[in-house]
Structure formats: C-alpha cells, structure tokens
Amino acid sequence: MREDNNTNSNDWKLSRRALIAGAAGLSIGSQAIAQTGMIPQRPLGKTGIQVSALGLGGYHLGSTKSQEETNAIVHEAVDSGVTFFDNCWEYHEGVSEERLGIALQGFRDRVVLMTKVCTHGRDKKVAMRMLEESLRRLRTDHLDVWQIHEVVYWNDPDMIFAPNGAAEALVQAKREGKVRFVGFTGHKDPGIHLNMLSHDFPFDTIQMPLNCLDATFRSFEAAVLPEANRRGIAPLGMKSMGGSGELVKRGAVTPAQALRYAMSLPVATTISGVDSLAVLRQNLEVARNFQPLSGEEMKAIRDRCRDAAADGHLELFKTTTMYDGAEGRRQHQYPDVEKLPA
Fold it and tell me: Is residue 111 within 8 Å of residue 100, measured between CB atoms?
C-alpha cells in the first residue's frame, strides 16, 4: 500500500500514538447512577475517552419536521447526558449533517461527534474532499470519530485497502488533526467485518447491528463483537430495533426490551435513531439508571425470539438490499432500490 507524505506502508502498525486504556466495566457504579439519574458512561475502547451508553443516531435528524425540532431533540439529549452523536456524509444528501451542525452550536465541546465517509471504492482524494464537506456542514474544525460508511459489499475491503484507497485517507486525516479516531461500519454480514479486521489496521471503532435477533442469524454478536473487544476496538451498536422497528412492529419485543438488550452487550454505545422528542424521551427512560440485563435474562429474550430470527426476515438489512444506501449502489452499479424486486 502506498503512503504519501513520507509515510511508509507500515505507518498504521508502527506509529500509532499510545492511548490511555479505558476502564473495563460496562457502566459507572450503580449507586452513583441511582443518585444522579444520568446515563452511564463507558470507555470508547482504548481511546481514553468515555461516551454515553446511549448514542443519538444521525439519519433521522434529517427526517424531522424542521430545524427547530432537530434543535430541541439535540439540546434535550445533551442536557440529559447523551454525549455520542452519529451522522454520515450522505444522510439525506447532507441535510442530517447540516441540521446537527446548527443544533450543536454552543454544545460542540460537550459531545463526541462522529460522521462517516462514503467513498464506496473511490480514492483517497474523494474521501478527503468528503471530510472537508462534512466539517463544513457540521460547523466544526475536527471530528472525534470518522468512519468508513457501509462496508457491505464483499469487495469493499479490497478497495478500501488498495493503494490510494480510503484507508489511507483515515491515516492522513488523523495525522493532520482533522479527526481524532477512525473506524468503519457495516450491516450486511459479519464475514465482511472480519475481513476488514484481518488487515490489522489500527481502527479505534467498529459499528455493527446488534439486537436480540442477531444472535440467531448471521450473528455480529457472536462473530465480531468478541474480536473487536479482544483488539480493544470500541464496538458501536446500531439497529437495536431492526432498522425501521421491525422487531417491535412484528411483536417480537417491546421498544424497551429491544433497547435494554442491545445496551446490555459489551459495547461502548448503542446508537438509536430519534425523529421526535417522544422517541427521545422513551429512549432516555431506558438509559437513565440503566442496569445491564443478566445473562439469564438475555438468554430468555433470545430464546423467545429464536423462531422469528431464524430466517432473517426481521433483519432486512442483512437479507435484502433495501437498506443499502444510494451512494453505495451507484458506485457498485446496483439499480435504485425502487427498481429492485426485493
């Protein structure tokens, strides 16, 4: 792999800064939580920083009725102890980033801000351009976390780690101080995540779907989560309710059960999409004074959902292309979702 600016191919293996290891526990002490009613904080892998056990998803911020509604959601979330904020270059064609950037004015130093780059096989130059656009939209001079978005096609790792690929952009952005930590996301198959990890790149974070059905079908919980924790890479959970709430809509679990299960896994944070204050407050009710489910309680939920989970029809992000983003489709020459039979 070629590196620019006199950085050799082993740069990510040899020159990584020493980071302060975070505490190993899932949450802060139960007595302290009970006294404050705040959301537990957890270590973000080996980065040395802590994040809230509940994170705010970025996609849905572009679905709110107005900027004012986005502001209200973001401000109440921050005031309630949510510190991890997700976003992505392509969400609603940049609207999600723009809305969050406005909402975070005056709050930026209170949050860990993450967004994602959507090269989908294009080169480092495209990735760095997208980074500058994200910084402008988010109204900040740096990101706390920058992740490669939607690694869901089997040839994605080959393109990401090719000479002049997106992996080189992560190295450059971190070296230039434009991002603090880097990672990648994906929702399709744990095998693709493991392929990414096999390159031994110094990822700080890794985002994946984690919910009470996942343990039964193409399980990220079983295959990827232990490996991420073994490497000290901070796991970020998503799709706790099936992507668009399929788990809840089909009666597999209640919203509270789904979120509690996901938050009870050994993850740094569980990112949940919020498009209204009502949904935010529902999530906050679970997150405040949160205590992880016991192993027996989690097994009971998995067993109850096992039949519904077995064929993946409630995790459509794994079994269909309907959740694959438009930007990735274009780069991989897939038709628009409206033109696909499933």
Answer: no
**Inter-residue contact 332 to 121 (CB < 8 Å):** yes
- Residues 6 or more apart whose Cβ sits within 8 Å of residue 306: 216
Cα separation, 213 vs 196, in Å, equals 23
Domains of the chain listed by start with CATH number: 39-339 (3.20.20.100)
| Signed CA dihedral, 227, 21, 14, 159: sign only | positive
Alpha helices (H) along the chain: 11-14, 30-36, 67-79, 95-103, 124-138, 156-160, 166-175, 190-197, 220-223, 225-231, 246-249, 255-264, 277-287, 295-309, 316-319, 326-331
Q: For residue 17, name the pLDDT band (cuts at 50, 70, 90).
A: very low
Is the pTM value of this prediction over 0.70? yes
Short-list 250, 271, 326, CA closest to 56: 271
Give CA–CA dist 125/119, Å, rounded: 10
Long-range contacts of 131-134 (CB under 8 A, 24+ apart): 131/169, 131/173, 131/178, 131/179, 133/89, 133/94, 134/87, 134/89, 134/97
- Let me know: does 210 contact 240? Beta carbons within 8 Å: yes
User: How are beta strands 112-117 and 84-85 bridged, if at all?
Assistant: parallel
Contact yes or no for 63/279 (Cβ under 8 A): no
* Beta carbons of 118 and 89 less than 8 angstroms apart: yes
Burial class from Cβ neighbours inside 10 Å (0-12, 13-18, 19+) for residue 228 reads: buried
Determine the angle formed by the axes of helices 67-79 and 95-103, rounding to 10 degrees.
50
**What number of CA atoms fall less than 13 Å from residue 39's CA on the CB side?**
28
Contact 137, 169 (CB under 8 A): no
pLDDT digits (tens, 9 = 90+) for 281-307: 999 999 998 999 999 999 999 999 999
